[in-house]
Fold this sequence. Notes:
The structure holds 2 protein chains of 2 kinds. Chain A is mainly α. Helix content of chain A is 76%, strand content 1%.
Amino acid sequence: xxxxxxxxxxxxxxxxxxxxxxxxxxxxxxxxxxxxxxxxxxxxxxxxxxxxxxxxxxxxxxxxxxxxxxxxxxxxxxxxxxxxxxxxxxxxxxxxxxxxxxxxxxxxxxxxxxxxxxxxxxxxxxxxxxxxxxxxxxxxxxxxxxxxxxxxxxxxxxxxxxxxxxxxxxxxxxxxxxxxxxxxxxxxxxxxxxxxxxxxxxxxxxxxxxxxxxxxxxxxxxxxxxxxxxxxxxxxxxxxxxxxxxxxxxxxxxxxxxxxxxxxxxxxxxxxxxxxxxxxxxxxxxxxxxxxxxxxxxxxxxxxxxxxxx
Amino acid sequence: xxxxxxxxxxxxxxxxxxxxxxxxxxxxxxxxxxxxxxxxxxxxxxxxxxxxxxxxxxxxxxxxxxxxxxxxxxxxxxxxxxxxxxxxxxxxxxxxxxxxxxxxxxxxxxxxxxxxxxxxxxxxxxxxxxxxxxxxxxxxxxxxxxxxxxxxxxxxxxxxxxxxxxxxxxxxxxxxxxxxxxxxxxxxxxxxxxxxxxxxxxxxxxxxxxxxxxxxxxxxxxxxxxxxxxxxxxxxxxxxxxxxxxxxxxxxxxxxxxxxxxxxxxxxxxxxxxxxxxxxxxxxxxxxxxxxxxxxxxxxxxxxxxxxxx
Lengths: 310, 310
């Protein structure tokens, strides 16, 4: 429906005055669901993070209130800090690499003939559509230490990768994780930036070209400012997603990674909470992750709200 | 004509300036080939990238068609001669796939249904009515999307546990619906706003009741939006792994992603049967890839136009 009329603001306002209860009735089911399934858990998380859970609580004893004890315990725990730093570093590397490759591919899609661009788009779509567990299973097979095609190809190229195990060492474990995550995330970035690029009017670029602006100048002077909102949004989403990556790390740990050396925040919460039943400590880390995410996304939420109006 | 001193000139991308008649033929011969060369090189680069990106999906497919003996002896098979569907038969006959498929279908069906109905009602309220609290609701919807699942799963596990809903279709569907409802509200809100109220009002002037006008005029125009948000909910519910792993601990209540993880682990107890594992991954991925190819354009363009307009 391309025709969008600017409907006068009086009409809905009038209706709202006449039947003020209708919108609330329409909202009620969604609000109830969000309260039950999200707001209550957030509250529980906050409450639990102030209590001490141990073996006794697994047998029904009520948890003891310890104030900020769990947080204090975590802050002084060098194990947690290494997990936090590892998560931040992993998140930054992945987000930056994903953005760089995604933007380059978007520019490439614009620069090549249509048919070629279509081939590239279809193969990116395939990667984007893969369910994460299926994708992880395939990559595990590609990096398999005995029969994996990666080891085979590297050996063919003259390196000795016969029987090389990628997941044993934390550094190469995270290298594999980065390869998989970048593979899965680049399509979203590439398509979003590409869609942003197609909104840059060709006439403006041509005019700039006639005025003597070279490719680099056209990029930094015209294209970049126009796609900046898209870039900012996509980067933010990448940072948020990469910060809380769980499935990929968990599944790679299944495949032979050493959990204590490869935990990120998500798998750490899982290990502390589900694994050891220390709900207090797990909740404290969860609250930390929640706070971190909200802090990061705040600027974006504020921009969106500003346009929303009253 | 503005020239920027020190800026590198790139003849291949600068448009030919109107040249003097004597030099025109030479330029005419020289420039297009240079530009063609660049375009050709970029095309090759794009096709190579496409091949690399699609390779894991290709590898999954051909590995699923080959017996394990051929996958694990000798060098990798890059082209499936003597392909067969034996791996798929073996997976289906293993007896665990169909229960997981049933579980996934039930969970997905409930999630999609609930998400569409609730989000549609809420979207109507937000885009057709002005009322007190509208702004805070939109604000909440935005914030909720930023909540990291990995920061909440312990609380949601305890929540379902206390409601006796662990391992149940209802329990996990409620959590999934709550997770997708914010984004589907966001998506549908744009579609609802795109249908002018005047159309409905005109139909009412022509003698239809409010309900009839809504069903005959507005609903058909909203169909694409409802379908797009339904597919979004489908993809989320079908692919979700983390929550399912935590709140469906029972062997009998696994959704397909959790089942696939278990299948790989069971298979890995001695030597992984990669043929069967790849067949299992293909069974999980194919419906998603199909649905995804249908709707991704709408989803990306919706997101990007929101960001650009903002």
